[in-house]
Design goal:
This protein has 20 helices and 2 strands. The chain is mostly helical. Among the domains are: about 90 residues; about 60 residues, Tetratricopeptide repeat domain (Serine Threonine Protein Phosphatase 5, Tetratricopeptide repeat, Alpha Horseshoe). A hairpin with a 2-residue loop joins strand 1 and strand 2. The longest helix has about 55 residues.
């Protein structure tokens, strides 16, 4: 518009200038060719030539515009398609976030080819299709995503594996992740998801072989990985016990890192299994080593359940801990059990009674009740111990139930 006004102003100035010149001296012009001639004023000739040239230029302009018109229409149509696709894309992602799976899938599918980001649309449509209950459409969208961007193999594969895991298709997810691992062996998300799949499939051997890669590539924090490692080792040990493979049980323990073997929880678990297969000496040695480095109540109690050949020496060892570690309820209970093994009924009763005085426990009530019933022939005291143990056990269950319900109660209170 500004350009048109500018040209119009130039034309008016030029016309005014020519008019002023023509008023004083219009001039004379003669055009001749053979028998043909034209004569007139110079102003008239210039004006006629200007109009002719302007007409020719205008016709050329119209011709160019006519030639470009189909392209302009196509460009306009494409722009309209793109704008509509972007609008559908936005609607699709909003509906996906709101959980409107059917509408989300419909809009994302419509907008995929014209939105400028087909791969992302197809991946989102695959999620919506799965939530709609169609794994067939989900896989079709994933295939379309791969066709739209073959270079995004990792991103598409991870999405596929994630959806397969969520859909309970752990075996399919494993196949997908194994392919991705062959493409990108150290990809952190691939390794993390592979860890999840092995857990779902209870594939403990594969998990064990994967742990070094997880540690090497820092997939998890050290403490988290250590917990995973302990949990996995327990599973493998339990499996070895079910298979009655004592050699495998001990081999698993030896394969554990030294720091893991020093954990009181792992020592306790392994020694429990050793006691089940009557490996008393090995269990006692590991328990004593564990107690030496970490004074641990669970290990103290387990020491009282093991049986050393020299029962008097075992009791003597436990009594030596009193001076350095105090008279805790767990140690006193263990001393009571070891005194029973040595047939020291009075000493056993004193240790067990003191343990109950420090911190009542159902175990101590049970052991003391059995002592009164079987060795001291006092059925009244035995019944008193059993009754107190049952009351304590019921109270413990009530407290546990309260602990489970407390977060809900607090949430309801906050809501009110």
């Amino acid at each position: 518009m500004i350009r048109l006004l500018f040209y119009s102003l130039i034309f008016l100035i030029g016309a005014a200038y020519i008019a002023l010149i023509a008023k004083e001296d219009p001039g004379y012009a003669l055009l001749s060719h053979g028998d043909w001639s034209i004569e007139g004023t110079l102003v008239l000739l210039v004006t006629a030539l200007s109009l002719l040239i302007s007409g020719i230029l205008f016709l050329i302009y119209l011709l160019v515009k006519t030639i470009k018109f189909p392209g302009k229409v196509g460009y306009w149509k494409q722009q309209r398609k793109t704008a509509k696709a972007i609008d559908n894309c936005n609607k699709g992602y909003i509906e996906l976030a709101e959980g409107n799976w059917r509408e989300a899938e419909k809009h994302l599918k419509k907008s995929a080819n014209n939105s400028g980001m087909p791969m992302l649309n197809y991946l989102a449509a695959a999620r919506a299709a799965q939530e709609n209950g169609s794994s067939h459409r989900r896989d079709n969208y994933l295939l379309q995503a791969h066709k739209s961007d073959p270079q995004a193999d990792i991103a598409i594969g991870l999405t596929q594996a994630e959806l397969q895991i969520k859909d309970g298709q752990a075996e399919h997810a494993l196949a997908t992740l194994m392919h991705l691992r062959s493409v990108a062996p150290r990809h952190k998300q691939v390794l993390k998801m592979l860890f999840r799949v092995y857990q779902q499939l209870n594939s403990w051997k594969d998990l064990e072989s994967l742990l070094p890669e997880l540690r090497k590539n820092h997939i998890f924090e050290y403490d988290v990985l250590s917990q995973y490692e302990q949990s996995l080792s327990k599973q493998l040990m339990s499996q070895a016990m079910q298979n009655k493979n004592q050699g495998e049980l001990k081999s698993i323990w030896k394969r554990l890192p030294k720091a893991t073997r020093a954990e009181p929880e792992m020592i306790h678990f392994y020694c429990q299994l050793l006691l089940l297969i009557d490996e008393q000496e090995l269990a006692l040695r590991l328990i004593k080593e564990g107690i030496k480095h970490h004074w641990n109540a669970s290990l103290i109690l387990l020491y009282g359940l093991a049986h050393e050949k020299n029962a008097a020496k075992q009791l003597e060892t436990a009594e030596s801990w009193l001076s350095d570690n105090g008279r805790g309820a767990e140690l006193l209970l263990t001393l009571g059990r070891l005194s029973l093994n040595n047939q020291l009924w009075g000493k056993a009763r004193d240790y067990l009674s003191e343990s109950l005085a420090v911190s009542p426990s159902t175990e101590a009530f049970q052991v003391l009740g059995e002592l009164y019933e079987n060795q001291l022939a006092d059925s009244v005291e035995a019944m008193n111990c059993y009754r107190e143990g049952l009351i304590l056990s019921a109270q413990s269950k009530d407290l546990k139930s309260l602990d489970d319900e407390l977060p809900v109660m607090l949430a309801l209170s906050a809501a009110c």
